[in-house]
C-alpha cells in the first residue's frame, strides 16, 4: 500500500479511536444503576482561591452500590466540598458527619432512566457523526491522491479499507451504547 495512503488511514483510525474514547468518558459520567466515583469527576472545589478537581483534594470511594464517600485530606475543606457537590446538581444531597461527606444515591425513577438512555444515545450519535466525519475526510484525501497520480485500484482499495474501519468503529460505539443502556435500565 502506498505510504501516503497508509498515513491517511492511520490518521483516520486515530481520529476514530479518539471519538470512541471520548464516548467512553461521556458514558462514564452518565449515572447507571450503581454509585460510581466517576459521577463526581466533573466536580471542582474552590481550594484556596483556585478551582481544583475534587479528586485532588479528597479521597473518593464507593463503599456500596448506593453510596459515594468523600474524605477530604484537610478538615477545613468539608464545607467547600459540600457546596461544590451541591452546586454540581448531580441529583443527590451530600451529608457531612464531621470527618467525611456521604452522598446517598437515590434510586432512579423510570422517567429518569429513560432520560439518561436518551442522553446516552445522543452521545453515541455524536460519536458516530465524528467517526463518519473522519471517514469523509479520509476519502477526500484519497481522492486528492488519486488526482495526483495514485493508481485507481490502490485508491479503491484504500476507500474499502476506510469503510471497513468505519463499520468496525460504528460497531464499537453501538456496543458501548448497548452496555450503558443495560446498566441504566437495570433496576
Can you give a write-up of this model?
A hairpin with a 2-residue loop joins strand 3 and strand 4. It is built from 4 helices and 6 strands, in the order H-E-E-E-E-H-E-E-H-H. With 187 residues, it is α+β, with helices and mostly antiparallel strands. It is elongated and about 70 Å long. Helix content is 58%, strand content 15%. Helix 1 packs parallel to helix 4 and helix 3 (110-147) runs antiparallel to helix 4. It has a 4-stranded antiparallel sheet, with helices on one face. A two-stranded antiparallel ribbon has the order 1-2. The protein has helices at residues 3-29, 78-87, 110-147, 152-185, and strands at residues 44-47, 50-53, 58-64, 67-72, 94-96, 101-104. The chain folds into 2 domains: 3-29 and 109-185, Orthogonal Bundle (Topoisomerase I, Chain A, domain 4); 37-104, Gyrase A, domain 2, CATH 3.30.1360.40.
Q: What can be said about the biggest beta sheet?
A: 4 strands, antiparallel
Number of domains: 2
Question: Would you count the extended β strands for me?
Answer: 6
Provide the low-confidence segments as ranges: none
Strand order of the largest sheet: 3-4-6-5
- Radius of gyration from CA coordinates: 22 Å
Q: What would CATH call the class of the largest domain?
A: Mainly Alpha
- Measured distance between first and last alpha carbons: 51 Å
The fourth-level CATH homologous superfamily of the largest domain is: Ribosome-recycling factor
Q: Which term fits the overall shape?
A: elongated
The secondary-structure element order is HEEEEHEEHH
Level of helix content? 55-70%
Percent strand equals 5-15%
- Kindly report the average pLDDT value: 88
Number of helices: 4
CATH architecture of the largest domain: Orthogonal Bundle
The CATH topology of the largest domain turns out to be Topoisomerase I, Chain A, domain 4
Amino acid at each position: 500500500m502506498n505510504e501516503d495512503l497508509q498515513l491517511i488511514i492511520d490518521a483516520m483510525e486515530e481520529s476514530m479511536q479518539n471519538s470512541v474514547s471520548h464516548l467512553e468518558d461521556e458514558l462514564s459520567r452518565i449515572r447507571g444503576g450503581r454509585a460510581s466515583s466517576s459521577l463526581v469527576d466533573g466536580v471542582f472545589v474552590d481550594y484556596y482561591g483556585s478551582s481544583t478537581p475534587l479528586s485532588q483534594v479528597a479521597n473518593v470511594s464507593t463503599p456500596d452500590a448506593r453510596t459515594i464517600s468523600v474524605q477530604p485530606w484537610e478538615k477545613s475543606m468539608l464545607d467547600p466540598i459540600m457546596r461544590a457537590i451541591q452546586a454540581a446538581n448531580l441529583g443527590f444531597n451530600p451529608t457531612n458527619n464531621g470527618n467525611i461527606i456521604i452522598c446517598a444515591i437515590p434510586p432512579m425513577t423510570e422517567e429518569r432512566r429513560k432520560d439518561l438512555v436518551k442522553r446516552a444515545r445522543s452521545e453515541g450519535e455524536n460519536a458516530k457523526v465524528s467517526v463518519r466525519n473522519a471517514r469523509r475526510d479520509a476519502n477526500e484525501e484519497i481522492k486528492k491522491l488519486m488526482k495526483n497520480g495514485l493508481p485507481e485500484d490502490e485508491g479503491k482499495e484504500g476507500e474499502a479499507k476506510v469503510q471497513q474501519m468505519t463499520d468496525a468503529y460504528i460497531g464499537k460505539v453501538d456496543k458501548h451504547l448497548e452496555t450503558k443502556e443495560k446498566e441504566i435500565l437495570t433496576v
